[in-house]
Specification:
heterodimer, A: Alpha-Beta Plaits, SH3 type barrels, 2 domains, 35% strand, disordered N terminus, B: alpha/beta, Rossmann fold, five-stranded parallel sheet, four-stranded parallel sheet, 37% helix, globular
Chain lengths: 158, 308
């Protein structure tokens, strides 16, 4: 028997990746971090603010015919630490993992300190941060030593 | 970890034992700080002062020459290709190919750490923005170690711009490594220590107080580290005028000082220590400045392989 209509806002995908349990309202930021613009050609489905037992409300992203690599999905842990990644093959979940925030965050966000060397133009340099606290998230710039809060991160990834 | 080949980026990269090793070598170097000991013959030190300095640059230059080595240098970015648009990485690569070590001062925080990524030779941070000034902190600690004979268990005051002042910040980190009895952080509210420094003190279990009033704590202090409160830091000049007197060390405030108080200052001084204080038994800042050469001799000799 098929599931009730309200749970099938978008159809199942045959092959690809489903990112589930994204905090409500942050799916666009997740796509932004993953560098998915919609111009790549593969099908992308985005569901926002649907009911979730775990989170109350959540967002879901489905990307067809692309299996996201662990290091790619870990990047989204910065703004979606609750997210789970399901790799789908032939309509079946073959792998399910929770995103994990790495100890060092490299080249995803910029340091908000304008006097940090990582903000000098034309230098061969990737902004790097160490995770100081996980909830709420707090990072420390490995160049200038300044703290970066969740608000600083959200401002950059909106 | 030994010193040889090591980058000197932040004072917190060192252990207390490593600093004591440095100080013992520095004490030896005092004998040669007006003569010469050929420990770094044929070695070249590059001084890259993107931000101007007299004291730090001259003392590195003197230290290297007293060790029998030589120096290539520039001061101010305008002097060389940077004025033509060369980036920091390319400038460092060039110096890396000429010299055995690079000393860098830069107005951007993290510049020395970045230079160390680019260079193969050791990079020594001579001040990066408002963040670190590790060699100054080494000299500050050395002065206390030399003149008081100990570093641990002291009541230490740090006065001035604790938010943006790199010398003050590095000194706070440095002194916290040697278990002060109590740390007194004396500054206007606006210029209190940054959160990351506060977390560091908390993580080390340091007993510290933050206060705006020097006169209320002067009687407790065995060391007072003075830096300048800069007018430019205040959004409203009237605010500065109101508070500036509270951050000036003169005979009046010293009338309540302990007999064994030692006043330090990284220099240059403007008016935060009255000239009349120079003649008192409390004034150690010129002595402190004179230790700049032997401490930097010791550091260069250790990092560049002149001393094992």
């Amino acid at each position: 028997m098929s599931k009730p209509e309200k749970e099938l806002i978008v159809s199942k995908i045959k092959n690809g990746t489903v990112i589930d349990h994204i905090p409500a309202g942050t799916a666009l930021q997740v796509l932004n971090i993953l560098g998915i613009t919609g111009r790549e050609g593969y099908r992308v489905a985005l569901v926002m603010n649907v009911e979730s037992v775990k989170l109350g409300k959540k967002d879901i992203v489905k990307v067809e015919n692309r299996e996201l690599k662990t290091e790619e999905v870990n990047k989204i842990a910065l703004i979606a630490p609750t997210a789970t990644i399901n790799i789908i093959r032939d309509y079946k979940v073959v792998k399910k993992v929770k995103v994990q925030l790495q100890d060092i965050i490299e080249n995803i966000i910029k340091c908000p300190n304008p006097n940090c060397v990582s903000n000098l133009p034309r230098e061969p340099l990737k902004p790097k941060f160490r995770v100081v606290e996980r909830t709420p998230i707090k990072l420390k710039c490995l160049y200038c030593g300044r703290y970066i809060t969740r608000d600083d991160i959200a401002r950059q990834l909106h | 970890m030994g010193f040889k080949g090591r980058d000197i980026i932040a004072i917190t990269d060192f252990t207390p034992d490593e600093l004591l090793r440095l100080f013992n070598v520095a004490k030896e170097m005092e004998k040669y700080s007006k003569s010469r000991i050929e420990l770094l013959k044929d070695k070249i030190l590059a001084l890259a002062f993107f931000e101007p300095s007299t004291r730090t640059m001259f003392s590195f230059q003197t230290a290297m020459q007293r060790l029998g080595g030589s120096v290539i240098w520039f001061s101010r970015a305008e002097a060389i290709s940077i004025a033509k648009g060369e980036n920091l990485a390319d400038t460092i690569r060039m110096l890396n190919s000429y010299a055995n070590a690079i000393v860098i001062r830069h107005k951007y925080e993290g510049a020395a750490a970045f230079a160390a990524e680019v260079a193969d030779v050791p990079v020594i941070n001579a001040g990066d923005g408002s963040q670190h000034h590790p060699t100054q902190a080494m000299i500050d600690l050395y002065t206390i170690w030399r003149e008081k004979g100990k570093l641990e268990g002291l009541n230490i005051g740090v006065l001035g711009d604790l938010r943006y002042g790199r010398a003050a910040t590095s000194f706070i980190y440095a002194t916290s490594m040697f278990k002060p009895r109590k740390l007194y952080l004396i500054s206007p509210e606006l210029l209190r220590i940054r959160n990351e420094v506060r977390d560091y003190l908390d993580s080390k279990g340091i007993d510290y107080v933050e206060t705006t009033k020097l006169d209320e704590v002067i009687g407790e202090l065995e060391v007072l580290y003075v830096t300048r409160v800069q007018k430019e830091r205040f959004p409203d000049p009237a605010e500065y005028e109101k508070v500036k007197g509270s951050y000036r060390v003169d005979l009046k405030v010293l009338s309540n000082a302990r007999d064994d108080l030692m006043i330090l200052h990284p220099l240059p001084r403007v008016d935060e220590i009255a000239l009349e204080v120079d003649q008192t038994k409390y004034a150690y800042y010129f002595k402190q400045a004179s230790y700049g050469v032997p401490v930097r001799m010791a550091l260069l000799a250790l990092v560049m392989g002149g001393v094992e």
